[in-house]
Amino acid sequence: MVVVDASVYYTRLKTHLRFIKLLCITHFTIKNFFIGITYGFVIFLVALFSSFCRLFDELLFPNYKNIVVKQPVFIISNPRSGTTYLHRLMCLDHEKFVYTLLYHTTFPSITIFKIIDFFGLIDRQIGRPMRKFFDWIDNTFFGDWDDIHATGFNRSEEDEGLHFISGISASVGLVTPYEAAFRELYIPDRMSEKERDNIKKFYYATIQKWMYALGSDKLFLCKSVMSTGRLQMLQELFPDIKIIYLVRNPLNVLPSFTSMFASTWSVLYPQIPKNSPEYREWGNLGIEYYKYFTEQKTHFKEENFITVLYDDLVKHPKDTVIKIYKQLQLELSDAFLARLDEVTSKTRKYKSKHDYSLEEYGYDEATIKQELAFLFNEYPTLDTTN
Fold first, then answer.
1. Dihedral angle at the C-alpha atoms of 47, 50, 53, 57, nearest 10 degrees?
2. Of 244, 246, 247, which is closest to residue 304 (Cα–Cα)?
3. What is the pLDDT of residues 322-340, one digit of tens each?
4. Which of the listed residues 58, 59, 183, 233 has the most CB atoms within 10 Å of its CB?
5. HEC string of 165-223?
6. Burial of 283 (C-beta count, 10 Å sphere; 0-12/13-18/19+)
7. What are phi and psi of 134, to 5 degrees?
8. What is the pTM of this model?
């Protein structure tokens, strides 16, 4: 039996097998069976192709291993707390940061990046037909998410696609309503030492590959709403990690978090009502994240950590970004400030069309306030904000 080192490729097989069992056996219907088999087939193909290309990386680009990932910047929060907006503002500082696009996280291989760059060059010479094709795919498959979380192959994106394929992310719930069966994925920090070591090896090597392809002389910038459960591993990998934590009123976050996945479930599992335990499991995950982050933040270095209120970011985006840079001791360039001013001046009138409510999913406001009393006590203005 050939064993591939985790730095080359890692996937938690039992997560994927459990997914298939739940859909194809435990909750069998013809439709569930089809979804389960399709999921397994896609995961297998992506993992096989990526691992094959990553083996080529070892032969063709071995110098990626020499890259030391220093002072990475992570934007971490519960979903629906403004992380995407802040991330894309900071991505404007492309002289300082490297960041991932969606395809980087799905196919994390230098070999793949080089192939795509080669065909991209050809595409530009012949009028961009391939770019137009992928724009069509973005509009077709991700268009319904534009008012929730604008997504596409060529948009800056968090690295959760990597963890989804690896089977260590609670985002598996995007394609199954049985999220409660995967609760050990909520806080991967609590997994076995062997699993943690494999995850860390794979993740560090992947960031090295991203930086090799995108800019080894820059800082890695990542926003990750599911990485609350991986905070210990992140600090073990990067002792000098810089963390930006966004805080938004949980009474808005939890139903919005749940609603984010409603568009997928309403198509795949329309028989499950929104006012059900399956949907509210996302709220349980969100509450767990608030608690775990509060527990872990005592270990952060003061000079490498800042908390930002969602309301401040939305009302004063430019000033908020400047405040973040000063706290984290990041240099502000004139070029970045000019781009930041241009973009934020255009987005001040933006209002999301994403509608949601506690009642829609059967959440109880009093229970949430009781569970998260520590958060409302620490940030008293949350109770009056969106």
1. -120
2. 244
3. 999 999 999 999 999 999 9
4. 233
5. HHCCCHHHHHHCCCHHHHHHHCCHHHCCHHHHHHHHHHHHHHHHHHHHHHCCCCEEEEE
6. buried
7. -70, -30
8. 0.90
